[in-house]
Predict the 3D structure of the following.
Amino acid sequence: MKPCVLSGPMRIGGLVLDNPLILAPMAGITQVPFRRLAREAGCAMVVTEMVSADGLVRGGQKTAELLRGHPAERPISAQIFGADPQIMREAARIVQDQGVDLLDINLGCSVRKVIRRGAGAALMREPQRLEAILKAVRAAVTIPLTVKMRSGWHPSGDQAVKAARMAEDCGVDAVAIHPRVAIQGFGGNADWSLIARLKESVSIPVVGNGDVRGPDDVLMMKRQTGCDAVMIGRASIGNPWIFAQALDLLRSKHPQSPDLSTRLQGILRYIDYAVGHFGETQAVRMMRSRLCWFVKGLPRCSRLRVAISRLKSRQEMEDGVRAYFEMVDSTGS
């Protein structure tokens, strides 16, 4: 295995990231407010939710909204999916014109409606179509280009290795791999040995993803696979501080868990960012469920869910959150 650099900057094409930690794209979660929290916690790059190339080219307002960002979250990658090389090319141009720093092509989504359209993980079964898409997109944009894939449709991982080599040959600048087969979802265990195999198979950077449940897993994945960066997804939901903790470990420091004050201030910023991005009415509606992510494991966390379930204003929500944290602090827990 090639020598593994645990921390420090990493390069994807012409883009230099401060460290090797990336936020994974997650539908309904990696929106601007959460992405900003991840960046503040030390994440080197964030990724949008998965964006439909067809929707972008048709001019869909809701689809285009997924690309709207904030200067504080840069560098940012936009992930698109589609099955038609020409549409993917046009979508790539639209994304680049929006000023994002990097473009990513999804080769891993196995949601039925995506697979039926021949997109996502379906492309790993159609190498000729995949090659046409990669060449079309690469020719259309000058920003760094990456792909994010699963193991493919067979546990051997051979499809992933072939797709990664094809991507490199087509001028893709890095490849991210979540080593579960397409139909596996998040069940079973991710096969990290495939990350190491890809690292030995291509010369472009390899980003590992899958089964990173805590900061210790980041360090373990880097050491076991030699990957250039680690992409963190579900473990960051309600816990953007995992990026700060992982960075501490990579830099041989003792990671610090967020105290009550850190959690409270993070929630208040999340509310602020959501109101600024979505408007108060929509943001408050969203926060009724999402704020509970940030207090999971704290005493009587169900009380916060009940307290904010019917609140209608930002002020009411902020007051409810502060009241909950004062209660937790007063119990000495």
Notes: The beta strands are 10-12, 15-17, 21-23, 46-52, 76-81, 102-107, 145-152, 174-181, 206-209, 229-232.
